[in-house]
Design a protein that fits this description.
about 30% strand, about 120 residues, DUF7993 domain-containing protein, 6 strands, DUF7993, single chain, alpha+beta
C-alpha cells in the first residue's frame, strides 16, 4: 500500500478552505473564506490565497508557499499559540498576529482546531 502525503502548498490551502467553509456548528460556524484567488500560485515569498473572516470581519490570511501554507490570525493570539503547541502545528507570534505553518494535508485538521480556538477565545 502506498501512502500519499500531501505537501503541495496550493492543495493544502484548498483542503484548509474546505474545512473552514464546511462547518455549520461550533465556533467555526462563524468563519468564512473570503476574497479567494483561485489563480494564486505558491511562491518562495508566499502568495495570498484567501482571507479568513469571523462574523464578516477579516481576521486572517492564508498564503501559499511551495510546500506549506502560512496562516496569519489576528484574534485569540494566545489561544492560537497554546493550542498549536498542543496540536503539533508550528506557530509563532509576529507582533499582534499568530502565524501557523500548515505543512501537510494531515496537518489541516489540527490547524482547523487551532483556528477554532482563536475564534472561541478572541472573536
Amino acid at each position: 500500500m502506498v501512502e500519499e502525503r500531501i505537501t503541495d502548498g496550493k492543495r493544502i490551502a484548498q483542503l484548509l478552505a474546505s474545512e473552514l467553509s464546511a462547518r455549520e456548528t461550533g465556533p467555526l460556524a462563524r468563519v468564512e473564506v473570503i476574497d479567494a484567488d483561485r489563480d494564486a500560485t505558491p511562491s518562495e515569498d508566499g502568495t495570498p490565497a484567501y482571507g479568513i473572516a469571523v462574523d464578516e470581519v477579516d481576521v486572517g490570511t492564508a498564503s501559499l508557499f511551495p510546500d506549506y501554507v502560512r496562516v496569519t490570525v489576528s484574534v485569540g493570539t494566545d489561544a492560537v499559540i497554546e493550542t498549536a503547541g498542543n496540536a503539533g502545528v508550528p506557530a509563532r507570534r509576529e507582533d499582534d498576529m499568530a502565524v501557523l505553518q500548515v505543512e501537510s494535508g494531515a496537518a489541516v485538521k489540527p490547524a482547523v482546531d487551532v483556528i477554532a480556538a482563536a475564534v472561541e477565545h478572541g472573536a
